[in-house]
Amino acid sequence: MKGFIHHKNEIWYNNDMSKPDFKECDADESPLCSNAHLDYLVEDHHRYFGIYMANYGQRGCTGDPANLI
Q: Mind telling me which InterPro entries this protein's record contains (predicted)?
């Protein structure tokens, strides 16, 4: 994929972000973090920290996102 850039450091949650466990990788696209998983799905980006992003975006990214689950 082209047209995007990740920050130098990657914070990798090898779960659904419902747990506070994460790993910090200090290389771009590190094979020790997300690049270790080549089964990317659009659905992987629908929820972050249990929040459904479409609902939050449709409300103008305002308010407490925790109330929009």
A: AB_hydrolase_fold
